[in-house]
Design goal:
Blueprint lengths: L2 H24 L11 H14 L9 H33 L5 H36 L8 H4 L2 H30 L5 H40 L28 H9 L4 H8 L7 E5 L7 H15 L6 E6 L8 H10 L4 E6 L6 H4 L3 H19 L9 E7 L1 H9 L4 H7 L2 E5 L6 H8 L18 E4 L16 E5 L5 H4 L30 H9 L17 H10 L6 H11 L10
Parallel strand pairs: 1-3, 2-3, 2-4, 4-5, 5-7, 6-7
């Protein structure tokens, strides 16, 4: 026999021996049983059907199939536990169910389950059409794609159940290996602990860390790039220019995009018909200085160098995870105030927002450091010659700026001259406080706080007139779409029905949407994946809505509603990246 043949024989003998040892410890247990658990299948079908009910946003067929598969697997686990508990109670009570009764019941449940899957899948096309219509999309869906939903769900659900049964089998094998040495309850407890330890170690130490490392590596490379058509500026009014202490190659990709796409004096003059100035844009990247305090101090020095503290408008801007600032939020001020503006921002991460959100402390600390440094310098200026101090943030950037003010309305009204928060997250401290103390009867999606004295919530222009009471100074605006899962997703959805599902509902929330414990939490979490796949004004897309908001907050002299509409038309071409930024 050749060397390769002997090696193959030894490998085969080892595999057979290992299989025999596994069988000896596993006993009669198998990963796959002869038939599924009837109770598990019943609850699985129920959860599948509920997962097809309307949520906040329309979904692609594959995303709906994935959501339905996870829901079905969860339902199977719950049903299996309930059946085991019911079987225990029946045995304790001395009740014995005859085999033919179990067979008939199982067959009936199978027929009803198939009928329910077919019926609800077909009916869900109508529900999906209602959700699409609410966000102004055509209500039709491609029928053959939607017919794939139960197939995708079955594959995903079966895979998850198979993984769970494999883990259970592994636990029993380990427990029986200790059965001869220690008491059986201790052996099973030991098996559970060891298998859990191995799973957590593999998931966290290998899968999760490897995934995060890959994401960070990719984000780091992207942060070193520069957007198409973006070049190093030559104006002294911009960071990254030859005169700047915040060097061009340290700003990060989004910082370079921010200063490299600043509105020009010529563009402003062409729009207003009046002479304009070159706007000031200051940006400090993670690589611009070694520490957080040093970066904040550099931002202030850049404002001093560029003359930012002598402008009429000074806006402190919070960034998203990658360091992005939406041009729809930064450009309107420059047009409205003839370029007599200064905008300053500071990067705290280059990771996508959904990853950066796991470490919110970085966003909060950066917001506090930047606003604190700018405010300390600003308040030393003569009161009559200070610029109007504004704060702005979108999504995670709004969390950063709220944290800079310690989530305090008193600080906002005392230390700023206006604020705009777009698409706030559920964890925004000030947003949570204001929403909780809203006037009874005002909806959660458009709350009325203190009769609208300083803060108003809007989705459409007419919302600024609600309530009809006077709107004083300073003014703060929250832009939040009724269908934005970034705003409405919260751990509270697991067990508590949200107020935003009360009547009346926001115009873009389907009237057919209902709340279900646990399931709605999962439904809205899935909506996050499609938060940017809808038209402007819905989901997490706010388009030119900040243009109207800035006009309401700052009220530029000589500015009219017609100017706002005209500017919104000009800014429709400003690119708006997605939620991953």
């Amino acid at each position: 026999m050749s060397v390769a043949g002997r090696a193959l024989k030894r490998t085969r003998d080892w595999a057979r021996g290992a299989a025999e040892r596994v069988r000896r410890h596993a006993g009669p247990d198998r990963v796959v049983r002869r038939r599924p658990c009837p109770g598990g299948m019943a609850v699985s079908v129920l959860c599948y059907c509920l997962s097809l009910t309307p949520s906040l946003l329309p979904r692609s067929w594959w995303l709906q199939g994935l959501a339905a598969g996870v829901s079905a697997a969860f339902g199977y686990a719950v049903g299996a536990v309930l059946q085991t508990f019911a079987r225990f109670l029946l045995r304790w009570a001395g009740v014995r169910i005859r085999p033919h009764v179990r067979r008939v019941t199982g067959a009936a449940l199978g027929v009803l389950g198939v009928a329910a899957i077919v019926t609800v899948t077909a009916w869900s096309v109508r529900w999906e059409g209602q959700v699409r219509r609410a966000v102004t999309l055509p209500p039709q869906v491609v029928w053959w794609q939607w017919a794939l939903v139960p197939l995708v769900a079955a594959l995903v659900g079966a895979l998850l159940v198979l993984i769970a049964r494999t883990v259970r089998l592994g636990t029993r094998i380990v427990a029986r290996a200790f059965d001869a040495l220690i008491p059986r309850p201790v052996a099973y407890a030991t098996g559970v602990v060891l298998v859990a330890f191995v799973i957590v170690g593999v998931v966290q130490g290998f899968l999760l860390n490897a995934a995060l490392d890959a994401i960070e590596s990719g984000a780091s490379l992207a942060d070193k790039g520069t957007g198409e058509g973006v070049h190093q500026p030559g104006l002294r009014t911009l960071s990254g220019s030859p005169a700047s202490a915040a060097h061009w190659d340290t700003l990060g990709a989004q910082g370079r995009n921010f200063v490299g796409t600043a509105t020009t004096r010529a563009d402003i003059t062409a729009f207003t018909g009046r002479p304009a100035e070159d706007p000031v844009r200051v940006y400090v990247g993670l690589r611009s200085a070694a520490t957080l305090d040093e970066r904040a101090a550099l931002a202030v020095r850049e404002l001093e160098r560029t003359g930012g503290f002598s402008r009429r408008i000074l806006a402190v801007m919070g960034t998203t995870g990658t360091g992005w600032i939406n041009g729809q939020g930064s450009k309107p001020l420059e047009y409205m105030w003839g370029g007599d503006t200064a905008e300053v921002a500071m990067q705290y991460s280059y990771l996508p927002s959904w990853v950066s959100a796991l470490t919110e402390d970085e966003a909060a600390d950066t917001g506090r450091a930047l606003f604190g440094a700018v405010y300390d310098k600003w308040r030393t200026l003569p009161a009559g010659s200070r610029p109007r101090l504004l704060v702005y943030g979108e999504s995670l950037g709004s969390f950063s700026m709220e944290s800079a003010l310690d989530g305090s309305l008193a600080r906002l009204t005392k230390e700023t001259d206006g604020a705009l928060f777009v698409g706030p997250t559920y964890d925004n401290p000030l947003w949570k406080t204001l929403t909780a103390r809203r006037r009874p009867g005002s909806p959660e999606w458009r709350p009325v706080v203190d009769d609208g004295a300083n803060v108003r919530f809007a989705q459409v222009p007419k919302d600024y007139a609600i309530p009809a009471a006077p709107w004083g100074e300073p003014r703060a605006v929250y832009l939040q779409n009724g269908s934005d899962p970034v705003v409405w997703w919260s751990p509270d959805l697991t067990l508590h029905r949200p107020d935003w599902l009360d009547r009346p509902r926001a115009r873009d929330v389907s009237p057919a949407m209902q709340w279900y414990p646990l399931l709605t939490f999962w439904q809205v979490a899935c909506d996050l994946a499609g938060a940017d796949s809808v038209p402007d004004g819905f989901g997490h897309r706010y388009g030119t809505m900040p243009t109207t908001a800035w006009a309401q907050i700052t009220r530029p002299p000589g500015w009219s509603e017609a100017d706002t509409v005209r500017l919104a038309g000009v800014l429709e071409s400003v690119p708006e990246p997605g939620l991953l930024d």
